[in-house]
# Entry
Amino acid sequence: MDLKEAWKKLAQEKLSKPVAGTDEVYNSSKHPIQKLIRSFKIALGFVVFFEGAFVYLAVVMPQPIVKAAMVMMMIVYVFYFVTNYKTLNHIRTNFRMDENLSYTLQSIYDNTQQSLKFQRRSALFIYPLAATCGFFLGLSVERDVVAVLQHNSTWITLLITIAILTPISYYVAIQLERVGYGRYLEQLRGLIHQLNSQV
Amino acid sequence: MPSLQREFTALINQNRGIIYKVIRLYVNHEEDERDLFQEILFQAWKSYPRFDGRSKFSTWLYRVGLNTVLTFKRRPVVVVPHEDLASLNIAQPKTTDDSEALYVAIRELPEIDRMIITLHLDGYENEEIAEITGITKNNAAVKLHRIKDNLIKTLKAE
# Structure
């Protein structure tokens, strides 16, 4: 059999038959990378929302120590914003379906994993800080925070709060990460494996 | 309609056969066909501003289509190799049409192999195949040789 001849006939007769679908381009995609992009956009939305909340609290709360705590949180959230934005930007610029597929997927997968790993590690320092800020904020509703901090019992309560909230927050964050990114990263890993094993 | 969109639509209209071909080679289900058609259009439209005209639009669209189809989550297709069917003593309809036999044989290949052989049959050089698939030129040549051998063996066995 002449392969080229048979292919020509196949291409003309069978493969050129129109398939169902409209010509209109809808702004929706089921691609795992497109879903990752959406997850990062949602994360950035939350970061902006919380940043706004911290700015508001820094303005309205009268006690300087609480204002300082809110400024610290604002700095932390700027850091989150930059990290997430950089990753989103990397995915957007590197996600090219008209380029080497295996390289594109691997690069996006590695960069996203790296970013999430970095955020997970830094969270171990940030959560105690956030717990402390929240603690000061709560105290400031009815008391003078600086005065209350003179008592040892306050520091012990703060340490217990940090000890309880840090692992819980970390656990919740990991679960949210799984929902927001995990399954798409898993899908990507599967695709990379499939491409590499066949090539 | 903005000029970029008009230009894109015109090019898609001229080359829509490429999208049909990619879909027919990889998808069986009508709903998947519709979704994949939309996904290829979407990905092509997203990538179009970066299309610099260094290659032909048809080559570029072929690549977008193949990359999209390989990363598209489809309903699993159960492919039963001919040898397995033979061992089950199930009578296989004999196809006398070379192109139909070729179609069946190509559909039995692993997806990347399917991509390589169809690019070759469409007249792409090994260098272009290597560029599209992301493998080396030598690897493309070796794989192509093996795929062709297997394909011919399968076709002879039918």
